[in-house]
Automatic annotation (TrEMBL):
Transmembrane segments: none
InterPro entries (alphabetical): Acyl_CoA_acyltransferase, GNAT_dom, N-acetyltransferase
GO molecular function terms listed in the Swiss-Prot or TrEMBL record: acyltransferase activity, transferring groups other than amino-acyl groups
Name the UniProt record assigns to this protein: GNAT family N-acetyltransferase
Domain N-acetyltransferase intervals: 11-171
Record keywords, A-Z: Transferase
Amino acid sequence: MADIIAETDRLILRTIEEGDAARQDRLLNTPAVMARLGGVKELHEIEAKHAKAMAMYAREGFSFLFMIEKSSGEMVGHCGIKRVDNPLAPNVGDHEIGWLVREDRWRRGYAEEAMRAVLDWAFTRIHAPHVVALTSEANIGSWKLMQKLGMVRREDLDFTDPAFPAEDNPTIQYSLTQEQWESSQ
């Protein structure tokens, strides 16, 4: 049974559970949604990520979550907290936030709504001292939301990842400290 981590006006944020991979594959794993995230994944890759997320939640009390639209009961996105795990990043182990929203729900404010709840979870319940978010300069929507959330560009944390195409390099990072977040509340 999934745990409900947060509720917003329009969303329920719940933990990943067995059987969610096929639904994620169908609803979120599209060329448009995955364009800046390394491309469409194979089902076994999604299943492996889910297993990792469920283990992280059991071990550390946080992970990625599904965004469930209250009005329809449908999965509309994926968001949450994990550890920076790219070995090329200079800040491996930091709390990393992230999100994606299915294409037919873009431009409705779901990512911002979900991420405000995730930041509250990170700072009030997990007690993260700071969070980071990773993207590329080409992913304008992503870094604009990071700025809207009060995050600050951290050029000192940029790194190149040869697994991504040239247009998505370097990986850039934004961060937000608990103090910065508290002062904006």
